[in-house]
Give the backbone structure.
Amino acid sequence: MRRSFFRAPFLPYLLVAPQLLLTLVFFYGPALQGIYQSFLIQDPFGLRTSFAGLANFASVLGDPLYGNAVRVTVVFSGAVVAGAMLLGLILAAAAAQPLRGVQVYRTLLVWPYAVAPAVAAALWLFLAHPSVGIVGRALVRWGVGWDYTLNGTHALLLVVVASVWSRVAYNFVFFLAGLQSIPSSLHEAAQVDGATWFQSFRRVTLPLLAPTTFFLLVVNALYALFDTFAVIHALTKGGPGKATETLIYKVYVDGVVNLNLGSSSAQSVILLVLAVVLTSFQFRFLERRVHYA
Amino acid sequence: MRDFGRTPNPTGAVAVPPPLADTLRWRVRRGLRFLPAHLVLLAGVALFVFPVYVAFVASTADLPEVTSGTLRLVPGSHAAENYWKAFVAGTGERIRGIPVARAMLNSLVVALGIALGKIALSLLSAYGIVFFDFRWRAPAFWLIFLTLMLPVEVRIIPTYKVASDLGLVNTYTGLILPLTVSATGTLLFRQFFLTVPDELVNAAKIDGAGPLRFLWSVLLPVSRTTVAALFVVLFIYGWSQYLWPLLVTTSLEKEVVVVAITKMIGTGEALVDWPVIMASALLALLPPTVVIVAMQRWFVQGLTETEK
């Protein structure tokens, strides 16, 4: 721990004040407001507000549409996390080899991180459009009956593909960094013992990548839960028929579009609990790293 | 020693190169060993380049060609008019919106504002927390740290209400300020400051430097790479923001480019001017691409360090 401190009566407070002020105004204030709101109920005209206890939570959890959103979120997040991590790992494993031109590959695979999720969604919309898009038309020609505007499964698949596409680069960067931090002597030792490439990947690389993998699992879950709003909003707007309405999208629709504040706040609080649980997993990882550092 | 071959050889032995066939065999074997890796990487690159290439082709075609589905994979001849329409004219007869130039300017202001604002705020607060002993030090750190648990998305409506009460709707301040707070920057700077040796602080004190002088003349210069790394990551973050700009701007004047593009698409049905939209999309991904490619080393460092 640091021993040399500056002494000044007011300066440290001044240094911390701007950050703390904004934190209180835009983070803790609204979060508390949201929690408070979740216990209130408003009449349809917004004229009277009364305390409702847990009624909002009860009606949210009893709502079959909320059950649908939970189901969609689980399928969607599972697919996005698995897809983005798997592709990222495969590409990183290849890019960690001593190849000719490997730097060019790396740049081309890191670059997609620059594509904002909403822009990625626009690109994929254009590819997958059933009558205009190259991929969409090809699928129709092959008799798939592809139409994401009518078929819920197709819509979900499209949202997953666009979300994975814009997230692979992130996983690639972390897996590559993880792979490069594994000393090559370990692989050489495995090779001397007669291990094939796959055996040494399975028995040496993967266990040593476990901390990176665990970290990515949590961070990608947070991404799939919260940051994919743009992709869904740009591609399907939650449709067709709520087939791509995830939890975060439902908060937006109920709060901003339908103006049902009580229900939307209760949903926000549920998501907040989820975020707290997931980030505390992230903190445990952080703690471990600090110990070993 | 480039004239190695011409110097007389005292032992009289001639260095025989390996037979050509062996070299070739070795090369082929080496090539084959890495062939799968090359194929995987090429497939990966294709996966990421293809959608962008198709968008590029569409941005150079004319509308009937695209809507009739006869678009081929070679660039057309309408690039100039499509990019002109997207960048400058904006509202074509099919598209309600603002010129992409204007939207990109908004995005630039927002991304720079978020990146520089976050860096300034987190640098100052981390400096206060690491180098000073004051009573509220631990609570201040925890208050900042725990904001990691409160993504914008779970408190959108109350945050919007605060912004509207403060008169920040449709202003750059409203777009930027709520997104300048975050724990990651503070954590990163804190981690880095903790590695700064005490001797540096003592030396500065002996030389009579006050805390602000130390921050400006000693700490900032040694933090250069951390600042650069954080800047790249935060610029991309700011440029990609979607939900908050969607909520806090209602006037077209302040629309950021990623939101403008999805509004152009609308429902994706009739009357969508695909060539202009694809031109807009490519324009929108240009600035962050330039930043990432130019600052790739800092980007990778910034990403892997801010998140851990």
Observations:
- The two ends of chain B are 49 Å apart (CA to CA).
- Chain B touches chain A through 99 residues (CB under 8 Å).
